[in-house]
Amino acid sequence: MLIRNTQNRYGLVTISLHWITAILMIGLLILGLYMVGLPVSPEKLKFYRWHKEFGAIVLALAFLRIVWRFSSMVPTLDFLPVLERLGALAVHYAFYIFMFAMPITGWMMSSAAGFPVSFFGLFLLPDLVSPNESLRITLTETHKWLGYLLIVTIVLHVSASLKHHYINKDNVLRRMLWP
Questions:
Q1: Does the residue 48 lie in any domain?
Q2: What is the pTM of this model?
Q3: Are 16 and 177 in contact (CB under 8 A)?
Q4: What range defines the domain where residue 106 resides?
Q5: Tens of pLDDT along the chain (179 residues)?
Q6: Would 159 be classed as within a structural domain?
Q7: Which residues pair with 118 in a beta bridge?
Q8: DSSP characters for 24-70?
């Protein structure tokens, strides 16, 4: 398998970044939905810590993905109808927005609540805002609704991939899978 993308296929770096980010983001969505319903306990605080730490990894991967995306060729979608190409482009841009907006709003929310964000106990991330209860409430709602929108976007993305694979029988999904 090639490391870099070609005109017809994604390379190992892009595929790895895609699947690692996807697994992390879906896991964080599941953990986020689960942990908010728990009563305050050491277990809930542990889940919040994990959520923040892995969210920081998603943010770092988002920066890496942007650098890679602009330094690497993107396989063409010229074989798709114009509306499908536009839809694919819109969903991909939405994912980049989510990869930045979700971790940043979560980080800001922790800062506004007065809770520092630790990176696996190695160091603390700097606060992005000063403690502020009304800002924390706004950021909590923003983070929550971004999460719901992300779920909808993931469902659209997966549905489109499966449609291309099983109905259109084209290579759209296969070129993002391991060989």
A1: yes
A2: 0.93
A3: no
A4: 12-176
A5: 789 999 989 999 999 999 999 999 999 999 999 999 999 999 999 999 999 999 999 999 999 999 999 999 999 999 999 999 999 999 999 999 999 999 999 999 999 999 999 999 999 999 999 999 999 999 999 999 999 999 999 999 999 999 999 999 998 999 999 76
A6: yes
A7: 124
A8: HHHHHHHHHHHHTTSPSSHHHHHHHHHHHHHHHHHHHHHHHHHHHHH
Tell me whether residue 172 is in a domain: yes
CATH assignment at residue 18? 1.20.950
If one counts the domains in the chain, the total is 1
The 3-class secondary structure across 126-138, one letter per residue, is CCCCCCCHHHHHH
In this structure, what token pair is assigned to residue 31?
């953990």
Nearest to 58 by CA among 93, 89, 114, 17: 17
Residues β-bridged to residue 117: 125
**d(C-alpha 52, C-alpha 58), whole Å:** 10
* Count of CB atoms situated within 10 Å of the CB of 143: 20
**Domain for residue 85, yes or no?**
yes
What does the chain come to in residues? 179
- Burial category of 22 from C-beta neighbours within 10 Å (exposed 0-12, middle 13-18, buried 19 and up): middle
